[in-house]
Design the sequence.
């Protein structure tokens, strides 16, 4: 077989595989469940910084980027959001948040927001002062290691109660 024919077969196979993976449903859910409880933020500044740098993964208010519709990137994005919501979900503060007390440390240590996310989302690029403010605010809002249960604010439904 000629090199050009082999190349054509390989390109065709890769294209078919690329189209085929689009049929895999995982990463297509892009669901944003309802907000059931919000943090009682220590300040509007903390709320603003958290929304800029954290909410796309750690809330039910994810803004799904265009590339989250293309497999296999959609699988990666959905997996990251699922994992992040499991650890800390600012939209479900009426439920226990197992890693809430580690949020400030994650910001201070530079683990959050992750560099790959910041590179793709310019609004999440926080200055050193903003990162410091965010860490302080998260600690004040959510506590630190061994802190008491963080404050929350239930979301009221249309009839004015929180059920």
Sequence:
């Amino acid at each position: 077989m000629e090199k050009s024919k082999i190349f054509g077969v390989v390109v065709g196979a890769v294209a078919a595989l690329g189209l085929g993976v689009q049929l895999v449903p995982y990463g297509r859910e892009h669901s944003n469940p309802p907000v059931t409880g919000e943090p009682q933020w220590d300040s509007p500044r903390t709320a603003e910084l958290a929304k800029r740098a954290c909410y796309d993964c750690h809330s039910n208010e994810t803004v799904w980027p265009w590339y989250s519709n293309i497999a296999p990137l959609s699988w990666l994005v959905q997996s990251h959001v699922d994992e992040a919501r499991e650890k800390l979900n600012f939209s479900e503060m009426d439920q226990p948040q197992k890693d809430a007390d580690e949020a400030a440390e994650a910001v201070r240590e530079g683990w959050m927001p992750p560099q790959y996310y910041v590179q793709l989302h310019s609004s999440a690029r926080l200055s050193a002062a903003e990162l410091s403010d965010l860490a302080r605010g998260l600690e004040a809002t959510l506590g630190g290691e061994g802190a008491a249960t963080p404050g929350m604010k239930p979301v009221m439904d249309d009839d004015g109660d929180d059920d």
